[in-house]
Amino acid sequence: MSKLRLYIDTALHLKPSQIAYRIWRKLGGSTRLHVGYRPCPDADKADIRRVPALSEIDFDPVFLARFDVDALLDDRVELLNHEERMDWRESWHAELSTPLWRFNLHYHEYLLPLAKAFLDEGDKRYLDKAKAIVDSWIDACPRERGGVAWDPYVISMRIVSWLAFRAELDGALRVDNTFCERINASLVEQYVHLSQHLEKDLLANHYLENLKALAILACYFDDRKTLELVLPMLKAQVDEQVLDDGMHFEQSPMYQKIVLEDLMRAAIVLRDSGFGEHAEAFKLRQMCDCLYSMERGINRTPLFNDCGDNVAKSRDALLLCARERFGVVPEFHGVLKNSGYCILERQTKAGFVKVIFDAGKPGPAYAMGHVHCDALSFECFVDGEPWIVNCGTYAYQDAKRLEFKKTQAHSGVMIDGVEQHECWAPFRVARYSTCKIEFSDGISARGSMKLRGRNPRIVRDICLADNGVRIIDKAFGGKRLEGSFIFAFGLPNIAEQSIDVNYSPEFGLLGSARKVIVDASDGLVIPYPMFYERAEHR
User: What's the CA gap between 104 and 77, in Å, rounded?
Assistant: First the structure.
């Protein structure tokens, strides 16, 4: 296939405004909040009481466990399962690890574990280290130097870390007026810069993050004029990006959790700042229902599209925050009809079995950066443990990224060796297949896929039988039908051969699983693993 055709097919999915903004940004143009408008935040009006820390999320033990606070004291930072030693005067601009790792470095999430360690132990070293990190960033990363530090998405993430840190340690920080004034002065700069560099070319979760950050900062600075502009834009993006079943429209369970956290934070800040209730407008109940339905009874993020653990906050922390702050008690839904996920659950002799089956479209045509070839794939959990899996994501910039996106990196189906979607660059998709739910009744489901650019149609039936998962694949058109089944443990005797494949349940963590390829057109029963197999796996 020609590169030109891939470019054309990819561009055809984009909104004309995206193309225009992309060209404009390449030429050095700004993408402002509103033509001719420049926020003029007043640092003297900043009030941290309007932006509380969220202890349920910010001090969640699962989140805190990602960071070694004593290693931070020794200037060692581990992010995404990779550690670097920092020189806080020089390393902010060093080519450390991957671009995604450097993004996470500039998010400053590790300020919160340092804050918690100071509060718990009273050891001033943790407070001093956190302040020194912020001071070093302000000194080393002036606006005019640009780079990763001033990327709009990075700013949108970092301001949450800074404000939560400020709020939680307000008493200890107020005695250092110089430090507080420096933070506020930098936040003013970041606020203005962000308002002039919105990611209108990318849209999707990036643009939502930008608007969330502007809304929170507008409340912090009591900048009502900016909030009057931002809030309708944020609500419009929620309407577009959060489907009625609560799933974020990029169809990634990980990003769904990230967006849920963002919208809860924004709703709480707006409420505490006197700007009304927004829980319903932000679809918080639907998002919680979706999260609860997807992850009830399992111990990690389902690996559909770009997903992995160690990035978003945990399910339990998010649902606890929703209950404590908004009174939301989530409900289970076996079919997420807008996103196309079917959730099957059954108690069997082998234990509690849960299947998440993807029979939805890959995502919005104009924002397919996180798409994987996972149509009609599924993950199966036994007593919470992942058994039949997709391979995950591993990284965004690594050479392996496209391998993790391929059809055969998922427990899905392929016909005639043709990839479901044309994923031709790390975040680029040309032609893509479409998928839909045919039916689901709680223990069985059927989905169908129309292969991109071709006549073949594939139908997959999946059922939780008493003795195992029953699969029937049918092809209407085409010649060779293959089902890939990837096992984290307990490989059953369903094929003559199996092969090792890369398996990454967390970003930056590379393990292995076993894959078999089987023609399931005549029906296939995959027997549940026995208890001793699960015990051995642990």
Answer: 10
